[in-house]
Each structure stands twice: as C-alpha cells, then as structure tokens.
Amino acid sequence: MENKAEHRLLNALEHIQQTQGAVSDEALKALAAEWGQPLYRLEGLRSFYPVFRETPGAPNRLQICRDGPCRLKGEAAVKALKDALGDRDDIEIEMVSCLGLCDCAPAAALNDSPGPLPDHADIDAWDIKDRHSISEHLPTDPYPDTAAHYSTAAQWLKRPAEEIIAEIDAAGLQGLGGAAFPTARKWQFTRAAQGEPRTVICNADESEPGTFKDRHLLEHAPHLVIEGILIGAAVIGARQGIIYLRHEYQRARAAITKALNKARADGVLGSDAIGPGHDFDIELFISPGGYILGEETALLEALEDRRGEPRHKPPFPTTAGLHGGPTLINNVETLAAVSTILARGASWWREQGIGEHAGLKYVSVSGDVKNPQVLCLPWGTTVAEAIEHCGGMADNRDLLAFSPGGASTPFLPASAAQTPMTFDDLRQAGSGLGTGALFVVGTGRNLAEVLLGQARFFRNESCGKCVPCRVGSNKGVELADAALNHQPNAIDAELAELHQTLMRTSICGLGQVALLPLVDGLKRFPDEPSLQPLRGQTPEAD
Amino acid sequence: MSDVSLTIDGVEVTVPEGTTIWEAAARYGIEIPVLCHDPRLEPVGVCRICAVDVGERTLPAACVRHVEAGMNVITANTEITAHRRILTELMLSDQPEQSRREATTGDDSLYALARELKVSDFPWPDAKSSSNPPRGQDDSSPVIAVDHQACILCDRCVRACDDIQHNDVITRTGKGHSVRIGFDLDVPMAESSCVSCGECVAVCPTGALTHQFLGETS
User: Fold this and answer.
1) Which of the four, A177, A507, B151, B180, has the lowest number of CB atoms within 10 Å?
2) Of B61, B123, B185, which is closest to A43 when you measure between CB atoms?
C-alpha cells in the first residue's frame, strides 16, 4: 500500500507539508521537475486544500471552530482567548470550519491536537490526551473480545454474494451518510457494473457541523468498518479498499492504523483475503482538508490527484468511479452496520428499532443540551427522547429549535420534538435525518445568527466550481448579513428566489442546500424576533 | 455507435449516442445559451447558463449531459429563464465598472447575455459593497491585460492554454468564492511561463483577458 500512496501527488504534497511545515514555491518547483508536472497543476492543488500552507507561519497554530454548536457556545470564550493571546507571536489563531468535535464545543486544535478550547491560562499546558482515551465497547459491536473480530466476514465470505446482499436488504439498511440510498441496491448495482479497477471506499470525511458519530465509531470500533469494507470487496470483486479520513481525526487515524496492522498480521487483509488468489488490502488516505471532499465524486477527484471539485452525474461512481471503474462508496456507519447485521442477522437488526422501524442509529447530539454526545438509539426514538438522554436542556433554557440532521437540514420548532428520528418522519415534518446530527438550540439564543451560520459554513466550504454555489452562496450570506447586522432589509423573497436557483442548478448537494436552512427558517418561524430584520423590520428592543 | 432518439422542446431528434444535449439541440436549430462552453473545448458545465429540464430533481447543464433514449428535454420555460437571469445577475454583480472587452471589441458575452435576458437592476451586493477584497488586475504583461474582477471562472482560458496550445500555464487558484485564475505558481503573468500566444484572450468571454491597449485610451 505504501507504494501506491507514493504514486499520488497529494501524498507527496502532504509529506512536504509535514516535513517542511509548508509547501513553498521552491518545494513545488522541485516536485514539478521530479514528477514531470506543470507548475499550474501543483498550484491548483496547493491552493485548494487547506492543509497545505504557502508559508509555515507561527511555531504554534491554534485552530478554533467557527461553526454551528461551537459558535453558539463559544463566542465569548473565543473572544477572551483571542484578546489574551493577542500579543503572543508564537501562536497563530485561525478560525476554521467544523472540526467534528461538537461534543466539546467550543472545539479547537492546537498544532493538530484536537480538544475543547483551552482557557488562555492553560494554553501552554494543553493536554488533550484525557478525552475519549478509554476504548468503549459499542452497543452494535457483536464481538466479546478482539479474538472474535472478523469472524462474521470469515463465515459470510464462504457464501454466495447474493445472500449477503439479500441479508442487508432484509435488514432495510439505508446509507447513513445522509443520502438514505438503500445499501443493498447500491451493492447490487456495483456488483453488476462491468469494468476495472474495482474499489471499495469508506467515506470517513465527516465534516458537517454537528456531526461526529463516525469519529466515535472509528475510534472505538474500527474493526467493524474494516470488516464492512472487506465484505463489500468480496461482493463487488474489489482488489483495493480505501478509507478516506478527514485530516482532523487524529485519534481515529491512530485507531484505524492499529486495526489495519492487526488485520494484516492476522491474515484478514493481504494475500487471499477474500478467497484463494484474491488479494485485498485497505489504504488509509488522509484528506488534505475541506468539507466538499465528503461529496463522493469530489472525494474521487482528490484520490485522482485533482482539485476536489464534484463531477457531473451521471455517470455515478457505482458504474464509473475511481479511475473509471465500478466503485462502492459507503459511509462509516453504514459499513459498520453491515458487519453488525451479518453477525446478528437481519431479523435481530429489525427487532432493535421501535415499532415498524428497524435497527440502531448513532446520533450526534450537540448544542444546548447538558451532555452533548454520540448516542446509539433504536430507530424511531424521538427528538425529545434524544435530548433527555443527554441530560435535558442546559443552562435552564427551554427548547427553541432543533436541526436533526446536520447543517443542511432545516430547523424545526420545539413543537416538533416528538418527531421520531427517521428519514420518513423527519422529511414529513419538513426537515430530514441527514447524517443524524441533532443540533439543539435553546431559548435566549439568536436563531437568525444560527441560521445564517449554517449558510456561512456552506459558503466557506464551496469548492468554487459552479456559479450558483460559488457566487450565489456568497451573495446570499452578504445580503442576509447586511440586513441582520447593519440595516434591516426586506430580502426574504430575494433569498427564496436565490435559493431556488442554487437548489436547481448547482452541480452538487452543497450548493443545492447552502441557503435552505436560512430560507426555510424565514418561512417556518414567522414570529421569531431575531429574523425580523430580514423582513425589513427592526427587532423590538429587549 | 448507435443512434439515440429523444425529444427537445417537442421536436423529435435522433443523434449518435454520446452526443450532448447542447450539440443535439444545435444540430436541430435549437439554440441553448452558454457562457463557459466553447465547442472547440471539452465542456465543463460550470456557468450553468445552459441548464435544461430533463424531468429530474435538478437541471443538468446541456453542454455536459449526454442524450438518453426517450429523454424529454425542455430548453426554455419560465423557471429556466428565471434561473438564467439570476445566474447572469450574480456574475454581473461582481463585474468591474467597465468591461475591457465591451469597451474595445464590444463582444463581451456576459453583457450580451444580460441584454438578451433584459437584466437591469438586481438585489445582490455588487463588488463595491462586498466585504470580499477586490480581486485586482495584473498588468505585468505588455501583451495581455488581466482583470481578475471580470473573470467568471468559466475555465475556457485554462482549457485553451492546456488543450489547444499545450502551454500548461493557467490554473484555478484558491477555493470557493475567492477562486481566481493563476499563472504557474500564481505569479504575475509576465513572470510566468506564458508565451503570450493570445489563445486565452481569444476564448475569454468577458473582459478578464484582453489585449493590452496600444497607448492610452480615453
């Protein structure tokens, strides 16, 4: 696997960044000569991916999350820290997009070590090792101990692939990265597709504000994800697997590396891994950064050494994915669920849900709850129950609004809290389950700022490829920001119209949803005082 | 390669498999407006002006989407025109006060499209009221004037430089709303490996890449 990685420009750039602290012009000129690549191509890559820096900057870099739950809970703390560190030239502060640590909001990373934002007095003694350091046995992990790992794959790989697909189908598993596409159908399509190379990719680029369940799964049960990839590879006939992990998940990176090494040592991966003469191994690829890479075709572009700009679909990756071959791309939780379902059986899985709902769902809960955390809940659990599992609302606040599925899913009012957390129920309620990221906002918060914050996130993370998303998301944010923070302006109709154009003409999902929570919130919360400036009205003074 | 039959604006058309919707329409005299597309270049489908309705959740770009048997394509209706107008307004809102192309050769495609769609006023903040820094000009080359503010990131110059001339100089640099075109490692054009062939000026639809004026103009 190491050999393959060395043949990728992005790995070479990552290596330069790691060893030299920056990707300088001189380094790129040397790389261009060595690889026979034009300079412009390297510039395109360096400038697109946030991990690559042109200059090293200060010796220490403190990245602070500016999105969703962290912005909600951290503005005062961030300001205090910035003020206290203002005269320190050994520390550079950088406001960044969601770090996937919404359970310890406001979250930060000092020199790539992630954790809760430190008090300025503690900055020199930053220690993040105490968080999440104890490995938990997850409720969906069917194995009593490590000796039993991969026994599900060993058993099922002896059976016809059709039986594997039938079992997943019987469990009713849908893609848990947010798209809800039936997993069995995706596996069937990819299996049926002709061509080479054939690849299984685990999308572990979890980067949507409020979403951190995949990090939890990868840290505590990487073997379930690896086993899911292995089974997927057997079904579609893949010789290569890739885990595409976001750069910021350092602890998950260590857990996956350890698990992969053990799987290789035990012969689970490597020669004859999925049958005689059928080798299979998994590469861990660390993303050079950016939310857009979670879009599956942008992810493929990155793996092919280009700027991570989404492709036009069709063709879909199932038929023409990585290097043009059939590619099975599944989310972390989906692949882990495959292992659980095949270990326990589809009927067991179905019994875990409430009523007619099947299975267990990992839900990331963040915002104004007492104990933000990842919950493993029976499908059909309501939003109100999830909040209760987190100790209820924090700081004596009442529930004002919640977004149930990540930054792209509209906020619903407190009156909708009895909605079960399922794809269908939340869609009917006007929102969506998305990634299963429940962002809870309490009374006393400025809902308009929260809604604009979601739009800002998408604006900041737009790849810039197509006009509606690149220009439209920015104009929408600027228009709303001016009305909210400078001069009230009746722009609700214009924003709604702009959203229609973004939704219908953007190439990928990012642009299609960039303004959705803001535009939807303006319709759904007609009496919310904080939103009145967007209707041209001055909010009443408190 | 076999033929594919479909309907475009109610017209039954038959074209070879692999033809794009835009090519198929053009072949039957149906004109779909474009900005980023140039028939000499591989399509990229980024300006979205050629968005058409094929009955899906979103509107694909006709320049990149291949025809499919039985497809029913609508190239213009009230909704599509509204989107084209907004997309045009969005691009216009960032334009400099004067397009060097419109001011000289008078063939700025963005302004032509705006006239066709009767775009006049728009609610979107313009470049002057924007919190984003101005994107600037690059007058380093004695031959080619670069006005980044007029660039709509259509990618035509990037493709022309690479695919037509094989000079391999231009890239998109940066990300999101701050993307610009850049030369080599994002150096001024005169310091880059640009040979001033002029192909980028020839394909640019706006005032972003134009010939330098010979002497002062008013």
Assistant:
1) B180
2) B185
